[in-house]
Amino acid sequence: MNRIKELRQKNNLTLKQLGQKLNMLDSTLSQYENEKRKPKKEETWQKIADYFEVSVPYLKGLTLDAKQLAKRLIPEIHQSYFDTWCFLNKHRKNGTYHDYSPEFVNNVNVYITLINNDNSKLPVELYSDNEIEYKLSKKVYKYWEVNFSSIFDEISSKEVSSNTNNFFLFDEFKKILKKRKDKLAQNSESLTALGFFYKAEFDNEVFSENRMHDNMRIMLMHGKLENAKKAINKYFEVITKLKNEVNNFNPDDYFMYRLDNIVLPTQNPFNANLIMNEIYKRVHNGDMDLLHFIMENDGLSLIKVYYNYKKAKNEDTKYLSKLQEKYKQRLKLLSDDNFISYLSTHYDFSTPNKIYDIEKIYKKYQQDRKH
């Protein structure tokens, strides 16, 4: 069935209105919609397709749209997920098992958790603990459809033929799901406070629990017994430490520690002590919104972050605007490699609490260069 009627109704057009826009009789369009007639010329199909900004195959109904993909893929997704989940958890399930893919179950769980900011139930939580049927009800179908709608849209945009086998459709779905899950998992904006802590303390460039785990596995499978023992004992110590940290974790306490000991000391590019003190006082007087805003924008200029926060709160930002401009000018000065060499040979920046006027030093540097 072609999609002329579907697209017309989607654009809130009557047959007469569409006919006027295409310079065609509404009676002819009606026959096309009901497939009592078909356009004889390919140019007619192209004319209608161009108006709706779709391809001719899509207009003719030869490719799958998102709803059609959902209808074909959701039963596959549902069965693969619960076949595997029940097998992994030794949970009794009526019927036969057709699929087993632990990676797929993990990708589904992680993806749904991340796109919903951990505010959505996992698939298995839609059923009671004593469930043995795991039937695909309307409610569960809607759950799958809502969570994977953007993936169905992406597959549809590739104009997949309606004759494509479900096996290939499901394979494409799994590839896109994994790709999106991996991208979301690496996105710092989606990190929880605990995730922020883990990445900073247990998964950084210097030390990585994940790399240590991989090394332990290699030693267990391919290393000498003594090396394997050392690797697993070392990893056990790290995991024990991580377990204790997680069990006693308090997001605000950790963010406060990070602000006081890392962010403020390292984010004072030109001794803006008044601003730093202002931030410190606000946070320690209970402005948790500011604390979380700073952590969410970790790595950016603290002056800029504070400016954006105050602007969002409709607070005065004039003095911060001047400070940001000064910061830009300073960055421009510090991009001069010759000036950097001059600073390192003429000044000692290791002296604590000593304030240097970089602009004044730069003027002296220019004068020295002239002589």
Structural notes for this entry:
- The protein has 371 residues and is mainly α.
- It is built from 20 helices and no strands.
- The termini are far apart.
- The mean pLDDT is 85.
Structure at a glance:
The protein has 371 residues and is mostly helical. The chain has helices spanning 4-10, 15-22, 26-33, 42-52, 56-60, 66-88, 102-115, 138-147, 149-157, 166-185, 193-202, 209-222, 225-247, 251-266, 273-284, 288-296, 302-312, 318-333, 337-346, 358-370. Helix 6 crosses helix 10.
Largest sheet data:
none
Number of strands: 0
User: Could you say which overall geometry the principal axes of the C-alpha atoms support?
Assistant: extended
Structural class: mainly alpha
Rounded average pLDDT: 85
Portion in helices = 55-70%
End-to-end separation in angstroms reads 84 Å
- The poorly predicted ranges are none
Query: Approximately how much beta-strand content do the residues carry?
Result: under 5%
Helix segment count? 20
Radius of gyration: 31 Å
Q: Please write the string of helix (H) and strand (E) elements.
A: HHHHHHHHHHHHHHHHHHHH
